[in-house]
Structures are given as structure tokens and as C-alpha cells.
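Can anyone check this?
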Amino acid sequence: MSEEKLPAAHAPAGTLDPFADPGLPEHEPRRTDIDEKAAKRAERQVSLLFVISMLATVGFIASYVTIDKYRIVDLFFFGKIGALNLALGVTLGIALFCIGAGAVHWARTLMTDEEIVQERHELKSSPEDREAGIREFQQGAADSGIGRRPLIRRTMIGAMALVPLSGVVLLRDLGPLPGNKLRHTFWGRKGPEGRTVIINENTGKPLKPDHIIKGSLTMAKPEGLNQETEDHQPNEHYLAEMGKAVILLVRLEPDEIKSKKQLEWSYQGIVAYSKICTHVGCPIGLYEQQTHHLLCPCHQSTFDLADDGAVVFGPAARSLPQLKITVNESTGFLEAVGDFAEPVGPSFWERG
């Protein structure tokens, strides 16, 4: 039979109890506990971290207001990234890190660090224990020195008060800041009656009427809208403009077109519509030849291309905007006449 383990208090003399309480080592004071100059230096370091946090928050707000959201910077190994996103991430990260680092440095160098042992007790606290907890909290507040170190207290409050402003500034996007940008696309840059050559999105070449095959969709964009500028620099506005200007072309029989206005805006049965769903802005690309219906894959909104792009099913509330097209008699290329008659994409408050 195995021997029964004896309690530590009754262990035979000379035996080693492996579960004996080793106790706490002797407390060693920190340099800031015995050297007031070191304590002052640590106080200035903590305050400096809080001040850096404040400056970073101001930098976050300044970046949000001044940096163009389409600006791109090249970070070598990381590749190309939006300058605004980079500035916001770096400044907000510094602001939050410095608050945390300042609090940790404060606790490790200036707050009381004497070891305290608290024996386990039942979960329910007695009134005496609750009173003792309040006293310990008050003692902890006194030990932290926050009342005696106004420089730390003020800079910490300033840093924590400024950080929430980052979220407040973001509310700016809820206002009508886009102005009339949502009402116009790249097609209208030459004016109401200006003509723009229609470019095949896949080949990058101008389209002619015989390129549009019945029963298929042809994705297109306006001439001049390219990913690079003339000096071979990245076009910072390409994606934003493309998101509004991209169109799809479909060839119908002229007698299948139900609307007189739609027929006038077409060329030999070729109609051009915005590719952007009027529900939440998904790109549309599913075409059913027999019914002339166009299906949005996101939420199944269905549009009738033979009837002014009207909604026949799904959550979309508005018809697809049509683009008026014609042909250049000298070149034979399809051209758009002016811009869409109404804003493309989802509805917005200022639409009217």
C-alpha cells in the first residue's frame, strides 16, 4: 500500500514538502522609489507619451481633412496604398499606443509596486470586505500619486479627451459633401451635347455597331478614362470614375423597344445602360436573351432592357439609367451624346 501524504505541519523532521508555500521574496525598491530625480524623469517620459498621443490625434484630424482620398503613395516593399488610409492608420495607431504605453510606464515606475497577498475566501463578500475594498481603492488612488503629479494627470486627461474626436470627425461623411459629383459621370465632361467615343472595356478599342452581337452583353467605358495619365502616372480617380461611367451595350430589334424615348436614344436597336444596379450599386452582368431581362447577382433585382430598363422584380426601386448613343459618320464608331439623364447607382438623400 502507498503511504498516505502527511500535512506539511505534521511532516517528519528533515523531510522536504514539495507543496510548501515558498512565500514572497524580499521586496526590492525601484530606482524611482529612492531617487526623486529618477521619479521626475519617469514622470516627464509618461507625460511626453501622452503629449505625443495628443499630437497624433490632431494629425489624424488634419490628415482626414487635407489629404485627397484618391492620392496613392508607393511604399516600396508594401506596394501602392492610399495616402489617406495610411495617414489615418498611422496617426490613430500612434495615439492609442502612446496612451497605453504611458499608462504602463506610469504603473511600472511610479505607482506603488509592493507585493500583496490575499488569501482565498468565499465568493460572497461580507460588508466588512466591501468596506475594506473601498478603502483599498482609495488607498490605490492615493498610492498612484495622481493627486500629487498634476502634469501626468492633465496630459493623460488631454490625451484621452482628444482620442474620441477621431470618431467624431468621421461623422463628417454623413453630410452632403459629395455635392453634385453623384449626378455626373465621365460621359458628361464635354457638356450636354458633347460626344464621347465608346471604348470596349476588354479590348480597349473603339466600338462599331457590327461589334455588338445580338444576345450578348458588351461592357464599355468612355474614351479618355484610363488607369494611367498621359505622363504614365497612376490615375488616382480611375476607379471612382469607372464605378459611375461603366456601361453595357445590348442589341435589340427596333420593334422590340417599347419606349419612344428609348428608341430615340438607341442606334439601330443598340441600347446602352448603366452597369450599376440602382439598389445598392452592384455590377450587373447576367442577361437573358429571350426576355431581354438583366439580372443583378447580389439581390436578384431584374430589369427589362426593352422597356426603359424598368424594374420587373427585386428590391431595386428605380430603372437603370440609359445613355444616349449615336454613330460617327466619318469613323463609324459608336459615340455617347452627353451624360446619363439621371444619376446612376443607388438612391441618395439629396437626389430630390
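Reply from J.R.: I decoded it. The longest helix spans residues 36-66.
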